[in-house]
Design goal:
Two copies of one chain form a homodimer. In chain A, 55% of the residues lie in helices and 11% in strands. Chain A is mainly alpha-helical. In chain A, helix 2 crosses helix 5. The longest helix of chain A is centred in the last third of the chain and has 32 residues. At the A-B interface, helix 1, helix 2 and helix 5 of A face helix 1, helix 2 and helix 5 of B. Chain B binds a DNA duplex through helix 4. Chains A, B: Keywords: DNA-binding, Transcription, Transcription regulation. Chains A, B: This is HxlR family transcriptional regulator.
DNA sequence: CCGTATCCTGCTGGATACTG
DNA sequence: CAGTATCCAGCAGGATACGG
């Protein structure tokens, strides 16, 4: 075997290679902007439906419900209903959800770090001469 | 620069709070499954259009083109055209792209680690009694 | 081989209204 | 307050064709 790395472990994308694999399916489910925003804001702590809606901003009732159900189905978010009037429903990250939160935090950091690069690239793309 | 105080005490999602902020816009652009898959597979090294298409699998010509343009526009991917016949077009991650790759690698690792949790959660969701 | 354009279908996702 | 359902405009995204 080669001299490239000491350990010939599988590359990180190994399980994404087959489009019909479970890993690929989960990846495709979760890697969308609403899911990421929900995970990120829920990272602040347990929140009610309306609170979360307000925190995120710009998300419709329908999209929030739909994505929360998807995240619940995949065990990233736990839903707790308090049988009061009016009802109080709280959402919390599970352990898996907290794990994903670290990834999303990483993406937030990345956005911060490369904001300048990206803006520059955008103007270069609009006007290839000036760059 | 001098002794600037660390601003890292702000929560990671601070810049995502306003739905119309630049950070939020970039975040929303890039956090989608095709972009992530492209970044991840391009992490293996420079690739031609067709190669990348084959590696990813299950992506249409149109989606690949469209997302590659978006990533190029944001400076995550560099496009090199070799003026031969037939043409040879190669795509490479930029520094910013490599930075994002680390995040996506993190997500691949997360998927691996919680695959079992997620499968369990799914069956629990289908049949709340049995678990 | 790669890019762009066009067509067309089905799904996304917003707005609204009603229920408990 | 939260969930679900309905309606429907608009875009996503696949298939195809042609040009460089």
């Amino acid at each position: 075997m080669g001299t490239r790395k000491e350990i010939s472990e599988l590359p990180p994308e190994a399980d994404l290679a087959r489009a019909d694999s479970l890993a690929r399916e989960i990846f495709s489910d979760v890697a969308n902007k609403w899911a990421f925003l929900i995970i990120e804001f829920l990272g602040q702590g347990t929140m009610r439906f309306g609170e979360l809606r307000d925190e995120i901003g710009g998300i419709s009732h329908k999209m929030l419900t739909q994505n929360l159900r998807m995240l619940e189905r995949n065990g990233l978010v736990r839903r707790t209903v308090h049988p009061t009037v009016p009802p109080r429903v709280e959402y919390t990250l599970t352990e898996a959800g907290e794990g994903l939160r670290l990834v999303v935090d990483g993406m937030c950091g990345w956005t911060q770090r490369y904001l300048g690069h990206i803006e520059a690239a955008r103007s270069r793309f609009r006007d290839p001469v000036a760059g």
